[in-house]
Amino acid sequence: MKRPLLLLLHLMLESQALRYSNSYYYQDLSPDGTGNGEIYFSGVRLHVESPQTLVSAVQGGNVTLPCVYRYEPEVSAPRKTRVKWFWQPNTGETKEMHVIVAFGSRHRSYGDFRGRVRLRRSAPGDASLVINPLLSDDTGRYRCEIIDGLEDESITVELQFRGIVFPYYSPMGRYQFNFQEAKGACEEQGACLATFEQLFAAWEEEKFDWCNAGWLADGTAQYPVSVPRDACGGTDLAPGVRSYGVRHKSIDRFDAFCFTSSIKGEVYFLQHQLKLNFSEAVEECAQDGAQIAKVGQLYAGWRFAGLDQCDAGWLADGSVRYPITKPRANCGPPEPGVRSFGFLPKHLKYGVYCHKVRW
């Protein structure tokens, strides 16, 4: 009877060097088998991938951030995996924030994402994140993490908005905003503070040229120059986005660069027999079942809906502007754009641009 007992004892001692977790086998590499040494993976391998690591979307719409996982070699039975999505915003924030955690059929979403996010799960291994609707602050870097036992793999997906950057300044004049005031001013006009990436893309792709520095979402003050000139830093500097660096958010004063991505509804020039002062303009839009349009809505209508109207009209902030898609005589400069007369006395008579929600 001693030999079977010795054999059983030997097998038990050998098994102490192996650990088992969720069908994965890990072997202890410590020489004494105490379980304190390095471990290596000796089962199937977990892979996490994304076919698209940069996703563009429109504010107010929905988006799917792709994330899929698989095993190598392929497994025959479903496995118990935990899915986590994290978000790092484009505001200079370095800390990741939870978006959603899912385990089997159970899930939990967090913060402002609560009620707006879910996992697509269109096929086995599909952990793609669906966000609906997209809010103005949702851009940034998202990380999809898959956890299976002691295995942990992740990928990142960058979310950016398709849209337009426009300069904005206070009715009190140039360089009046501190950082929070600039942020609030953009939001009041149906937009948000632009990121550096958005401003750079506008300069690079659209030759955006503006010779007044404005706040960006990361707390820097910058301005884009496509045609170097004396009034914009001199002619000896190459075209580019000029930066004043990170500024004091309470003390320093600049304009703002705002970004708008979409428009829920329609912006239109109200056909009216008479010109209107500002108060009359607000009232006439209301009588038409609409509201007087914001600056960001006018820019969005121009960019996304091709709004083209050679008539100056009041907007909600008290400015007078008009959008031109097809430049022509007596309609301003030879380039497309939103023309501005600035902030005028509110008793003067102009047309009005209204915004009506359609969905």
What is the share of helical residues?
10-25%
> Helical element count?
5
So, CATH architecture of the largest domain?
Sandwich
Number of separate strands: 26
Judged by helices, strands and strand pairing, the structural class is alpha+beta
Unreliable stretches covering 5 or more consecutive residues: 1-42
Q: Kindly, what is the distance between the CA atoms of the first and last residues, rounded to a whole number of angstroms?
A: 83 Å
Task: Please characterize this protein's 3D structure.
The chain has 359 residues and is α+β, with helices and mostly antiparallel strands. The chain folds into three domains: 45-161, Immunoglobulins (Immunoglobulin-like, Sandwich), CATH 2.60.40.10; 163-260, Mannose-Binding Protein A, Chain A (Roll), CATH 3.10.100; 262-356, Mannose-Binding Protein A, subunit A (Mannose-Binding Protein A, Chain A, Roll). 16% of the residues lie in helices and 36% in strands. The strands form six sheets. A six-stranded mixed sheet has the order 5-14-13-8-9-10, with no helix packed on it. Mean pLDDT is 87; it is low at 1-42. One of its GO terms (biological process) is positive regulation of neuroblast proliferation. One of its GO terms (molecular function) is hyaluronic acid binding. It comes from Ameiurus melas (Black bullhead).
Reconstruct the topology from this structure.
Elements lengths: L1 H14 L2 E4 L2 E5 L10 E3 L3 E5 L4 E4 L5 E3 L2 E5 L9 E8 L7 E7 L2 E4 L7 E3 L9 E3 L8 E9 L2 E11 L2 E5 L10 H10 L3 E2 L2 H11 L7 E2 L4 E6 L14 E7 L8 E6 L5 E4 L8 H10 L3 E2 L2 H11 L7 E2 L4 E6 L12 E7 L7 E6 L3
Parallel strand pairs: 5-14, 17-20, 23-26
Antiparallel strand pairs: 1-2, 2-3, 4-7, 6-12, 8-9, 8-13, 9-10, 11-12, 13-14, 15-20, 16-20, 17-18, 18-19, 21-26, 22-26, 23-24, 24-25
Family: Belongs to the HAPLN family.
GO molecular function: hyaluronic acid binding
Keywords: Disulfide bond, Extracellular matrix, Hyaluronic acid, Immunoglobulin domain, Repeat, Secreted, Signal
